[in-house]
Every structure is written in structure tokens, then in C-alpha cells.
Write a structure and sequence with these properties.
Layout: H1 3-11, H2 22-33, H3 43-46, E1 49-52, E2 58-62, H4 66-79, H5 83-97, H6 106-117, H7 124-127, E3 139-145, E4 170-171, H8 176-179, H9 185-195, H10 213-225, H11 229-240, H12 249-258, H13 264-267, H14 274-285, H15 296-305, H16 307-316, H17 324-342, E5 362-363, E6 375-376, H18 377-386, E7 403-408, E8 414-420, H19 427-436, E9 443-445, H20 449-457, E10 468-470, H21 473-476, H22 495-498, H23 504-510, H24 516-520, H25 524-534, H26 551-561
Parallel strand pairs: 3-9, 4-6, 9-10
Antiparallel strand pairs: 1-2, 3-7, 5-8, 7-8
Length: 572
């Protein structure tokens, strides 16, 4: 088959009007199979669909030039163009040419695309790996998107059998009540009002700030009963200085952080940094003066690790010394931070089952599963309570799955995604991080990082000891009850955190809206296959070396060869 005739296949898909004899069809296929790669790939790249009747006699051959399909791949990835739009454009062009009144059937084009796309040889592991971050990114940005397929397909999916028996030994995590600095909820509420720094959310705040002298006495009594006499000493000094009902401005932020239900390891996220802990202890002991230029490198290091606490200590340091009650309070915070991980036994490797069989609803080419999830004590204890417990109403499409959960690096490269079968929860990112990473990432950015941190500490405190959990900049304004330790804008001294694009997920997921109707009603396998293309702008590079001409070039050549005004040119 010549180059010119092969190119005309695109413009004349129905050129075979008369049924071919089997011998003629055989010769056609043999000639196409022997053609060189410079002319055309092979018959499977050009002939994507073939209609036959019941007695196996061909009736009409519909042939697609694979340059058209490659151009659609580029349009889908870069412009999120649905296949239906491509069909309409092709039919409009064919109609404008005048000599091709027949329309390209959508069903044939769809079958041709599905057949051709699955023949592409793509190094998915390379495509889904950032050249700067490597196979295991140290900083990840994760989020969910409401792009799912039909729920009624789920019962028909083959469930992979477990690789082996589940280990009987339970993995015990940390207790949230022991991670919080002030355990009494009433004391936290009074102290938060006393601080005068109750953050407002999107709505109007109607609560009152400040407390009365009677409430101050009640607060001090409750703190002593809960074992927090170090906070009581600070309040008594402030009361003696004339701040009986409301804290002074320099103490407002610090006291509001201590008064929240956020654990100490969330307010001061440096539990895995022994150097930072030791420097903070030396500051509390009076060995290091953070306001002195002599210790500038220590203060710069602490501003990167614990900016809120470091800024407070610098503001209350007078003549190179901290107030004694502040020193005692900082040492108590360091003690709670260390004990959070010290009192929990580190699980042994035999607690973890073998990695389960690969799920068809997960796609992580560069992050294979290394192990399964063990049995956690906190989950075993909550099974009896979950049967009759009240559950939050979930929002989403009534007939579609909740969506996808994606994992990105700061450079905008997707490392994979999984189709969620239940509503988005901290379990989805936790399962990915624990089973696919040999070492936990250094920074995790997620719109619900406060709950993800709590979920992880209840199960795997040692694995996530060195991980900093952050809420993305857009969503943190709604986290009015969270510590500033989860706020990305607090870490202005940390260049690696300050430069993170926390909206990389939303930016990538928003581009999928154009083809959402096309993806929503696909089968699960087809859905996952198309998302692997459409969710990645950089996958267009994988087709750059395919031996084909672009569809636009093919169109121009065909129109030159078949001029409507000069019929004799078509005979050349």
C-alpha cells in the first residue's frame, strides 16, 4: 500500500463500497502488513474496525488513519476535548470538502480510539515520576475530586483475594487525650476566651471574648485539678500585672494555641527533629538567647521548625531572659511532645501483612504497594460503637462513585490516583502513605490535614513522627479551631514550604470537568484508563516519537490532491 493511498484512508473511510471477497481482503491485509514504518505503522494502526455479517463476509471496511487518533490524544490531554467533539469536527470538514457526504459513525470512532490507545507502549512509571523529586517525593500535595463512574458497576468488579492471613497482633497508636496539653474542655474554652484571639471563620462571630474575675478563679482551679499548674502560674502573674480579664497582646496568640484541642505535636511539628527539641530546651533553660545576634543561627533554625512558638519567645524575652513561668511552660510542652512518641511501642515488621493483589481501581505506577494495613487497636475498639452511631450525611452524585483521590508533587507531576468507593476521609491518604512509601514524606499538604494528622497519630505515630502536616492556603481560613502549626503561611522562614503551590491538585482536577460527562458513564476499567491520560498534561510527550503525520497535514495534502475545481488533479 503506497503512502498516498494510506493517507486517503482518513478522508475516505467508506471507500470500499462493494463487499470484498475473502481472497481480496487477505491480499489487502498482507500488503498492509508488509508496508514499512515510514509509510504506515501496520494494519492494526490504520484499520481499527471491520464490519462483518453472520457468514463472515466483509460488507464495508471503516479505516482510520492513526494520525487522527494521535491528534485526538493530544486534544484530550491538552484541551480536554471529548471524542464526540472530534467526531463533529471531522464530519464538518468532510462535508465541507464536498466529496465525502458520509459521516464518520461515532461508535466506529470510539472503537477505533479504544483499540488504538491500548496499543500504545508508554513507560507509565517514567511518566508518573517527577525528574526532580524522584520515585519517592518528600513533599506531596493530595486531594480528592468528584469525578467518578457508575456505582452499579462496583458489584461486578472482581475482588482480589487476600495474599495471606491477617496477623493477629494489634498495632497500638497514641491516645489523643495524652497528646493535648490541657485535657479539660471547660478550661480550654475559658483560656481561649481569655486570650482574646478566637479566630473568625467565614460567618459572623457572635461569641464574647474575655472572662470575668470569677471565671478567672474558676479557670485557675480547673487547671490545677487537671495538673496544669504551670499555666496557672502564668495566669497569676498576668493577673497581678493588671490583666485579670483579658491577656496582653503579646500573649494572645500563644495562649490561644495552648487552649486548643490540637495536640502539642500539631502545634509544634518538630517531634522527629532532635536538634530542634534540644535547642528549644536550651532556650527554656536560659542557655540560648534568641534575641541575641550571637545565637542567630539557632533562632533561624527554630523559626523554620516552630515559627509560632519561636516568635512568641522572642517577643517576651527581656534583657536576654525569659520569665520563669514561660520557661517552665516551654519545658512542659517539650515533655508532652517527647512522651507522645516515647510511650508508644514501635510495631514490629511481622505485624504487617503482605501487600494485597493490585486493585483495578488504583493507579500508582511508581509507587507499588509495599505492605498491607495491619489491625489497629483503635479500630477494633470502635467497631462496637459504629453499629448504631450517627453518621455525617455525605454529599455527591446519587448514582456515581465519590470520585478520585490524587497525589501530586510540588512540581505538578501526578504520582497516581485511586477511585474512592466511599466518601473521602483521612483513611484514603493514610492508606496510600502507609502502604506505598517506605519512609513517610517530610511534608504532606491536604485540605483536611488536621484530621489526617489525628488519624495517623492514633495508628502510626512512629511512622509519621518526622512528617509535617499542613492545610493548604485556600482551605485554612475555614479551620477556625486548628492550631497555626497547620497553617502554611506560618512557615515563612522555611523556603521549601513557602514555595509550595498548595493548589496544584485543584488546578489539575479542574481541567477534567470538560470531559467529565464522557468519563462518568464508562466501565471502571475504561474509566481508569482514560483518566491516566486526561489527568496528565505531560503525557503528550509519550506520543512524540510515533511515526505519523498530523491530521492537519493529512487534510491539506488530501485537498490538494482532490481539488473540486480541477478534477484532473485527482488523477495525478
Amino acid at each position: 500500500m503506497s503512502r498516498r493511498s494510506s493517507r486517503r484512508l482518513y478522508m475516505q473511510p467508506d471507500s470500499v463500497k462493494v463487499p470484498l471477497k475473502p481472497s481480496q481482503l487477505k491480499r489487502l491485509m498482507e500488503a498492509s502488513a508488509k508496508s514499512t514504518a515510514d509509510e504506515v505503522d501496520n494494519i492494526t494502526s490504520n484499520v481499527q474496525t471491520l464490519d462483518v455479517n453472520r457468514d463472515s463476509t466483509p460488507t464495508a471496511m471503516v479505516m482510520f488513519y492513526f494520525g487522527l487518533l494521535a491528534d485526538y490524544l493530544s486534544s484530550m490531554v491538552q484541551g480536554k476535548q471529548p471524542l464526540r467533539t472530534t467526531q463533529r469536527v471531522c464530519n464538518d470538514i468532510r462535508s465541507a470538502c464536498g466529496s465525502h457526504p458520509e459521516n464518520i459513525p461515532y461508535e466506529k470512532l470510539r472503537q477505533a480510539w479504544n483499540s488504538w490507545a491500548r496499543r500504545l507502549v508508554i513507560d507509565w512509571e517514567k511518566v508518573y515520576t517527577c525528574s526532580k523529586c524522584g520515585p519517592e517525593p518528600k513533599i506531596i500535595v493530595c486531594d480528592g475530586t468528584m469525578l467518578g463512574f457508575r456505582k452499579d458497576f462496583l458489584p461486578y468488579l472482581s475482588t482480589p483475594e487476600a495474599a495471606g492471613a491477617q496477623p493477629e497482633k494489634l498495632v497500638t497508636g497514641s491516645n489523643h487525650s495524652r497528646r493535648v496539653f490541657i485535657t479539660c474542655a471547660k478550661s480550654r474554652d475559658l483560656l481561649l476566651r481569655y486570650s482574646g484571639n478566637k479566630r473568625r471563620g467565614r460567618g459572623k462571630f457572635t461569641g464574647k471574648l474575655g472572662i470575668s474575675e470569677e471565671e478567672m478563679a474558676d479557670l485557675q482551679g480547673k487547671l490545677i485539678q487537671s495538673g496544669r499548674s504551670d499555666v496557672t502560674d502564668l495566669l497569676r502573674r498576668l493577673q497581678a500585672e493588671g490583666h485579670a480579664t483579658r491577656a496582653p497582646p503579646e500573649y494572645s496568640t500563644f495562649l490561644s494555641e495552648v487552649a486548643r484541642s490540637t495536640p502539642v505535636c500539631g502545634m509544634i511539628q518538630m517531634a522527629g527533629d532532635k536538634k530542634a527539641i534540644r535547642i528549644m530546651q536550651m532556650v527554656a533553660e536560659g542557655t540560648i538567647d534568641l534575641t541575641s545576634s550571637r545565637f542567630h543561627r539557632y533562632s533561624a533554625y527554630l523559626f523554620e521548625k516552630a515559627p509560632v512558638l519561636t516568635d512568641f519567645l522572642c517577643s517576651v524575652t527581656k534583657a536576654g531572659h525569659l520569665p520563669p513561668d514561660i520557661s517552665a511552660l516551654v519545658l512542659s510542652l517539650m515533655t508532652v511532645l517527647i512522651q507522645t512518641f516515647k510511650e508508644v511501642e514501635k510495631p514490629s515488621p511481622d505485624c504487617y501483612p503482605a501487600p494485597p493483589p493490585t486493585s483495578t481501581l488504583s493507579f500508582f505506577p511508581s509507587l507499588p504497594q509495599l505492605c498491607g494495613l495491619p489491625r489497629y487497636a483503635v479500630e477494633e475498639a470502635s467497631k462496637s460503637r459504629e453499629k448504631d452511631s450517627c453518621r455525617k450525611e455525605s454529599y455527591g452524585h446519587h448514582s456515581l462513585t465519590p470520585g478520585l483521590f490524587t497525589l501530586f508533587c510540588p512540581h505538578g507531576v501526578c504520582y497516581g490516583f485511586t477511585a474512592m468507593q466511599s466518601c473521602e476521609s483521612p483513611r484514603h491518604p493514610f492508606e496510600i502513605l502507609r502502604t506505598r512509601f517506605p519512609v513517610a514524606p517530610r511534608v504532606v499538604v491536604y485540605d483536611n490535614s488536621c484530621q489526617l494528622h489525628k488519624y495517623a497519630m492514633n495508628r502510626e505515630p512512629h511512622f509519621f513522627q518526622k512528617t509535617v502536616f499542613l492545610v493548604d492556603r485556600f482551605h485554612f481560613k475555614g479551620h477556625v479551631g486548628c492550631s497555626l502549626g497547620y497553617c502554611m503561611d506560618s512557615y515563612t522562614a522555611a523556603v521549601d514550604i513557602r514555595s509550595i503551590n498548595s493548589q496544584v491538585n485543584e488546578q489539575a482536577n479542574s481541567s477534567l470537568i470538560r470531559i467529565q460527562p464522557q468519563l462518568a458513564y464508562m466501565t471502571p476499567s475504561n474509566f481508569m484508563f482514560h483518566v491516566s491520560f486526561s489527568g496528565l498534561p505531560h503525557t503528550t510527550n509519550c506520543t512524540a516519537n510515533l511515526p505519523h503525520a498530523s491530521a492537519s497535514t493529512l487534510m491539506r495534502r488530501n485537498r490538494r490532491e482532490q481539488c473540486l475545481r480541477c478534477p484532473e488533479r485527482g488523477q495525478q
